[in-house]
Structures are given as structure tokens and as C-alpha cells.
Design a protein that fits this description.
By secondary structure, this protein is mainly beta. It has 1 helix and 10 strands; from the N terminus they run H-E-E-E-E-E-E-E-E-E-E. The strands form 3 sheets. The protein has a 6-stranded antiparallel barrel with strand order 1-4-7-10-9-8. The relative contact order is 0.23.
Length: about 140
């Protein structure tokens, strides 16, 4: 039997998820950017595309960098740069999350911070939905 063969019962998993969520003392609003080509409305002479709110008041914890995935390479023009990524933890039940969603931290130690989800990855038997995030500027449309 290897460490990969360990099976966790549903009760143990539920208990571990509740414990992980108890450490998520911040709150976020998850916002989804408008789809390319989405219909815009005119506000004060400017075309504005509406962001959708996926969920609000979602428990959240911002963690530090983890391992080799602490940076991702981005090409800007002809230069390649490294962008620091961090890990954002949300409840395991938060299944409506997509690459590119924005997390607006509304309460907690990092209130006012805006993060973009790099990859909305998932794994079996996870105690939390842990996703790599990068800090971004608050969109003007908000």
C-alpha cells in the first residue's frame, strides 16, 4: 500500500473541509469578465460591458507561494517576465469558478485587493478549492 492508496471516508472529508473553511476568514466577491463581443450598454457616452457576479460573501484565504509554481512566465512584447502567483483557497463547494474570474476581497486582512484566477483547477478529495491567483488592478467598470 502506498500513500496514494489511502482512501478517506466521506465523514472524514467533510470534517477536514469544515476545518479548512474555518481558516478562511476573508470574504470575496467572484466576478466574471464580460465575454468578448458581449453587448455593451452606453453610460455617459461610453460603452460599458457588464461583469457578472458569480457569488458574493464567499469565504476565502490568501496563501503564499507554493513550490515550483510560485511564478509563471509571461511574454510582454518581446520580453519574457516572471509574475508571482499565490494560492487562493475557497470552499470545496465553490464549483462555479473559471479561468480568468476575478476575486474582489471585500473583508479580511487583504480587503481591497483584486486577484485574477490563473487556473480554476480541481482535485479529488480536496479540503478546499485552491487556485493560483495573481494580483491585478481593480477594473474601472466596477
Amino acid at each position: 500500500m502506498t500513500v496514494w492508496d489511502v482512501v478517506v471516508s466521506e465523514a472524514e472529508l467533510a470534517e477536514a473541509r469544515a476545518e479548512a473553511e474555518s481558516r478562511m476568514t476573508s470574504r470575496v466577491t467572484i466576478r466574471r469578465p464580460p465575454a468578448p463581443g458581449a453587448t455593451a450598454t452606453v453610460v455617459n457616452g461610453f460603452e460599458v460591458r457588464a461583469w457578472s457576479t458569480v457569488a458574493s460573501g464567499v469565504p476565502f484565504r490568501l496563501g503564499g507561494n507554493q513550490g515550483a509554481g510560485a511564478y509563471r512566465r509571461v511574454t510582454v512584447g518581446s520580453a519574457e517576465v516572471q509574475v508571482a502567483t499565490r494560492i487562493g483557497s475557497l470552499p470545496a463547494s465553490q464549483t462555479d469558478l473559471k479561468d480568468g474570474d476575478f476575486l474582489d476581497v471585500t473583508a479580511g486582512e487583504s480587503a481591497g485587493l483584486v486577484l485574477r484566477v490563473v487556473e480554476a483547477i480541481w482535485q479529488d478529495q480536496a479540503t478546499a478549492r485552491r487556485v493560483p491567483v495573481v494580483e491585478v488592478q481593480r477594473p474601472e467598470e466596477w
